[in-house]
Design brief:
Layout (H helix, E strand, L loop, with lengths): L9 E5 L4 H11 L3 E6 L18 H6 L3 E5 L5 H13 L2 E4 L5 H5 L8 E6 L14 H7 L2 H4 L13 H24 L5 E4 H8 L1 H10 L16 E5 L5 E5 L3 H11 L14 H6 L1 H12 L4 H10 L4 E3 L3 H5 L2 H4 L4 E6 L2 E6 L22 H7 L5
Parallel strand pairs: 1-2, 1-4, 2-3, 4-5, 5-6
Antiparallel strand pairs: 7-8, 8-9, 10-11
Helix pairs in contact: 1-7, 7-8
């Protein structure tokens, strides 16, 4: 039997949507027993879509290796079962509205590590506001940085939820370590707003001390030029980055075929290139229009300039960095199987745990029997 780093740790999670399930799935990846408490009808993320053999793409990503029990916590019996689960747990995770866990009358035993994931914190003027992922992206200013000069855009993934889930995960690991070494169980609190606010620090500092926020310029980098995607003659975009002056000189001489541009006052420094981005882009676009993406990337490689084609998702799915390194595994779903990515943090000598995604309430009878309830 495989021994995982968190074998013997029991996590009870009153969770839904993305942030909390992402945190607890990573604990399950490390071998923790994660008991997912779902309301009657199940986590509403089960119904976000039906694209993965009838299951939600969000749900199958976030909930493998867990056990599912359905409880109605508004009934005395449901609350009794929940409190018995908490009495046996090491960690309790919840992403209910602020104060909801207390209003339910949950009994938190001494020594239990609790983790609360909220939108805007458990106190302050916004504590009671709803906080879905895109709302938080808007409030932190992230959406104002994403898109083109004409239009903002939502990033293609749930950035606020993922940030919140990652900080909850690392906070819980820290609390488990502290309890193991000192005997003290610390509680963890993470808000989606605070998590994404941390990720917004660089543009925040740029704005506060520079007087204006970074411009919204599509795939171009706001403070480095050239650094962005340009269409080649065959229509595929090629992104490349110039990080220093030797790379700039190599681009001019070996790719653009205009070595004299290296010392042109409009482009001779990083700041000058940003200031004269439009003129520089016109030169690059003219060169890219004379070669297909394969030729352009070969020229950039020869000049030792970092570059890549702008892949679509189907190209990512078959990426050699994934396929040739064995990063895909088969995971069972209710009535089917799917390919899932191995957890990114590899631990020497520990095979990844990738157990099935549960059906709603699949383990209810089993867990109730463990707690001493008759069938």
């Amino acid at each position: 039997m495989t021994t995982f780093p968190l074998s013997g740790v029991t996590v009870v999670s009153l969770e839904q949507a993305v942030a909390a399930p992402f945190a607890t799935r990573q604990l399950a990846d490390l071998g923790a027993r994660v008991i997912k408490v779902e309301r009657p009808g199940g986590d509403f993320a089960r119904r976000y879509d039906t694209t993965v053999h009838g299951e939600s793409s969000y749900f199958v990503w976030l909930n493998r290796s867990k056990e599912s029990i359905t409880l109605d916590l508004k009934t005395p019996h449901g609350l009794e079962v929940m409190n018995k689960l908490l009495a046996r747990a090491d960690v309790f995770v919840q992403n209910l509205a602020p104060g909801a866990a207390q209003r339910l009358g949950l009994a938190i035993p001494p020594g239990l590590i609790t983790c609360s994931i909220t939108g805007y914190g458990t106190d302050g003027p916004w504590a009671d506001r709803k906080a879905y992922d895109l709302l938080v992206q808007c409030q932190t200013g992230l959406v104002s940085l994403t898109g083109t000069p004409e239009e903002t855009a939502r990033p293609g993934i749930s950035v606020a939820d993922i940030a919140g889930g990652m900080y909850a995960y690392s906070g819980i690991l820290t609390a488990l370590y502290t309890r193991a070494t000192t005997g003290v169980a610390h509680n963890v609190e993470v808000s989606l707003f605070d998590a994404l606010a941390e990720w917004m620090s660089q543009p925040a500092y740029y704005t506060r001390y520079g007087g204006t926020q970074p411009p919204r310029i599509g795939t171009q980098h706001a403070t480095i030029a050239p650094y962005g995607a340009y269409p080649a003659a065959n229509g595929k975009e090629v992104l490349f980055s110039i990080q220093n002056e030797p790379e700039w000189h190599a681009l001019c001489a070996q790719v653009l075929g205009q070595p004299e541009l290296a010392d042109d006052p409009r482009f001779a420094t990083g700041g000058a290139r940003v200031q004269h981005r439009k003129e520089l882009d016109e030169i690059i676009l003219e060169r890219f229009a004379r070669g297909d993406s394969t030729e352009i990337m070969a020229a950039l490689d020869a000049a030792n300039i970092a570059n890549t084609g702008v892949n679509e998702v189907h190209e990512f799915l078959e990426h050699p960095v994934l396929t040739e390194r064995g990063r895909w595994r088969e995971v069972e779903l209710p009535g089917a199987t799917m390919r899932a990515l191995v957890p990114p943090a590899g631990i020497d000598g520990v095979a990844p745990r990738m157990d099935p995604v549960p059906a709603a309430g699949e383990h209810t009878a089993k867990i109730l029997a463990e707690l001493g309830y008759a069938e």
